[in-house]
Amino acid sequence: MKSKALLVAFLLLGALLLTPNAKASPTNLSGYTICVDAGHGGKDPGAVGYVVEKDVNLAIALKVAKVLEKDGAKVVLTRDGDYFVTLSGRVKIANSNNCDIFISIHANSGPSSASGFEVYHYYTSSRGKTLATYVDEEIGKLIPLRNRGVKSAGFYVIKYTRMPAILIETGFVTNSNDASIISDESYQWRYAYAVLHGVQRYFGVPVHDPVPTVENIRFADHGSYFRVVLDMSERASYHVYYTAYSNGYHLVIQVDNAQLADLGWPVYNGWYYTHTGSDTAPVIYATQSGSTVLIVVELNSPYRPYSDFTLSNPDRIVVDIYP
Ligand code: ZN
């Protein structure tokens, strides 16, 4: 495509579609490093009751890590499998990575009547107490167990880590109802979202669940069809439609309540663009406008038929355009 025609196309895009806003304001956890510590592991099972503590701790910790990462945080795990890490080894990992906060995941044991969750901070840490308070409140909103409240203690990992640190006792492995909740996959995700919300409050970020992100846009001309693939961080709602302009035809993929990652493409007037080398769809443009992501595929002939579908795990939006 010639550069003058490209410029005209950009002007039309800018004028006829939404006003682009490529730079979103910082409303997530990007820039923060968070250490997530799954208690026990390997030769150390932790408390044993209806379930084994080390297994539940790891399952919840990995989900906590996942949702924090989805909201932009950098996550450092002290363990990501069933192996033993010393307490001093855990502290070393958190301190040497200069983590901003430290979150340890444990489960409790006691008499069979004992039930509920509680969140610890180190005695003299006021920022730890603030973080513990927020996380405790958020767990209380999502988990149907007794809230035993915020407590202080001198546990090794919250004492020797140099950043605000909390230790969550998610429930009692020795109570059958608690054990069924902390070992349940969907409740484990609820713990993860509760921790996310507490951390967002701690850092002054509006409480929200992770926003689906268009992480990458791929394309290929397969001859009989031209395929556009959006790699999503998670499933999002979208729709596909055509728009016609005086000098061309565009297929628009509109992804709602989403954000656009840095595509690494050239940018003009707030729009990423790339030349595809295909005669069917020579240029693809992409921008974020508010909470909408627009992907515009320029076409060489009007109203080509298309099909679209989603693939999950990994979540993808696939649009095939037929010449
Ligand atoms: Zn423990």
Global outline: elongated
Radius of gyration: 24 Å
Class by SSE composition: alpha/beta
Specify the helix fraction band: 25-40%
Share in β-strands: 25-35%
Describe the structure.
With 323 residues, the chain is of the alpha/beta class. The chain folds into 2 domains: 4-26 and 210-321, Sandwich (Immunoglobulin-like), CATH 2.60.40.3500; 33-202, Zn-dependent exopeptidases (Aminopeptidase, 3-Layer(aba) Sandwich). Helices cover 28% and strands 33% of the residues. The chain has 7 helices and 17 strands. It has a 6-stranded mixed β-sheet, with helices on both faces. The protein has a 6-stranded antiparallel β-sheet with strand order 9-10-15-14-13-12. A hairpin with a 2-residue loop joins strand 9 and strand 10. The protein is elongated and about 75 Å long. Mean pLDDT is 91; it is low at 14-25. The protein binds zinc ion. Zinc ion binds next to loops.
Can you summarize this structure?
With 323 residues, the protein is an alpha/beta fold. The chain folds into two domains: 4-26 and 210-321, Immunoglobulin-like; 33-202, Zn-dependent exopeptidases (Aminopeptidase), CATH 3.40.630.
Topology:
Blueprint: H1 3-16, E1 33-38, H2 53-70, E2 74-77, H3 87-96, E3 101-108, E4 117-122, H4 126-142, E5 147-153, H5 156-160, E6 165-172, H6 176-182, H7 185-202, E7 213-221, E8 226-232, E9 238-245, E10 248-255, E11 259-260, E12 267-268, E13 271-275, E14 283-289, E15 292-299, E16 306-311, E17 316-321
Parallel strand pairs: 1-2, 1-3, 3-6, 4-5, 7-11
Antiparallel strand pairs: 4-6, 7-8, 8-17, 9-10, 10-15, 12-13, 13-14, 14-15, 16-17
Helix pairs in contact: 2-7, 4-7
The structure holds zinc ion.
Zinc ion is lined by residues 39-40, 46, 53, 106.
